[in-house]
Write a structure and sequence with these properties.
- 31% of the residues lie in helices and 41% in strands.
- It has 143 residues and is an alpha+beta fold.
- Helix 5 packs across helix 6.
- 18% of the residues are buried.
């Protein structure tokens, strides 16, 4: 039986906690996309295809150690293949060991059990703070 978009998203977050980035990339359709509309300072705003997602995730566990997703609220849309989720991820920054919490709003579309479209709205300031990169973000913004 095919998984619903909510089940796919929940599985993706389980794999994130398990630090299985290859497993997460495998959830994408070969031509699926990932978009990060709020990305700043040289971070990618769009990834095209499963292999681009895999490349993007390859160094994630060197920066963030996600230990939990304590809260998630899923909103269904008029399209049964698409959900909107609000959630938080907690963990620590690998480089500094400092705890962090990141908040997300994500729009996920799933067809035939694979992610075809993933739009992730997060704060670049929160991400830079969590990853110890506030100064790099500031420089990247020309501030």
């Amino acid at each position: 039986m095919e998984r619903s978009p909510e089940e796919v998203l929940r599985r993706m977050l389980e794999l994130l906690e398990a630090k299985d980035m290859d497993g997460i990339a495998g959830m994408w359709a070969p031509d699926g996309t990932a978009a990060f509309p709020f990305a700043e300072a040289g971070a990618p705003t769009r990834l095209d295809g499963r292999e681009a997602v895999r490349d993007y995730l390859s160094g994630y566990t060197d920066v963030y150690d996600v230990t939990g997703v304590p809260a998630m609220r899923v909103h269904r849309t008029g399209d049964p293949e698409t959900v909107v989720a609000e959630y938080s991820a907690e963990g620590r920054t690998v480089r500094t060991g400092v705890p962090y919490r990141m908040d997300y709003i994500t729009v996920v579309t799933v067809r035939d059990g694979f992610i075809t479209e993933f739009r992730d709205y997060w704060s670049p300031v929160q991400a830079a703070r969590a990853g110890g990169g506030l100064e790099a973000l500031r420089k990247g913004l020309g501030a």
